[in-house]
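Handout, section B. The chain below has 266 residues.
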Amino acid sequence: MRSTPDVQENLNAAEALIREAKNKGAALVVLPENATSIAQDKAMKLKNAFPENEHPAGPFFSKLAKELGIFLVAGSISIRLGPEKIANRSLLFGPDGARMAGYDKIHLYDAAPAEGEMYKESELIVPGGRAVLAPTPLAKIGLTICYDMRFPELYRKLAGAGAEIITVPSAFTVPTGKAHWHVLLRARAIETGCFILAAAQGGAHPSGRATYGHSLMISPWGEILAEAGEEPSMITAEIDLAQVVEARRKIPNLQHAREFEGPWIQ
């Protein structure tokens, strides 16, 4: 997607892509981070955030998931927690329209990836404090968001709890995307033996922000199954959960993990 500061415009854009995915046989659809709004101005970010039970995205995506009979990860949306604070929350809806899980982004992006480019999510966003795994009839789905991908311990915990698919809705910066996007996501797939589904924002947004794009679907062996570019689009791939079992049989690193002390400085 290439989200704007207009919530309804973004919902309409998401619906078109979701329907296209369903028409191509998708059973699980994943949207990117900040699917309902990308704005640079703090006041606009707060304006487009609502308590979850009042957010227009909730009933919108619930109704769409039920109509199409799909599992839908609504990327992430801004949930109002108070006058000046929000959560960056990923929501999973089932084919009956029910909200199956919600995950608040744990790791907040406070970084300066390039000259003149600075982000400080912690000024507005309250970090989550728990990993979330949703055991659905389709697969065991772990929920993460964007910057989380730089913290492999989260992914190992999800895999250790049985995750077969891990979703990574993102709005990656261009400099870090060019340098790190593919290698980080392939590494998370390889070390967990999970399918990684990373839907991304891409291109020059009306807010003035630019994002990297290149949504990816990656196998448990680290192979890129499908990749998008920068333009708004939809990609699909077939997922065979037997590949999760096979990858973990070949490289049983999750079983070999050991606790250890230190490091000790000698």
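Note. The two ends are 51 Å apart (CA to CA). Compare this with the example in section A.
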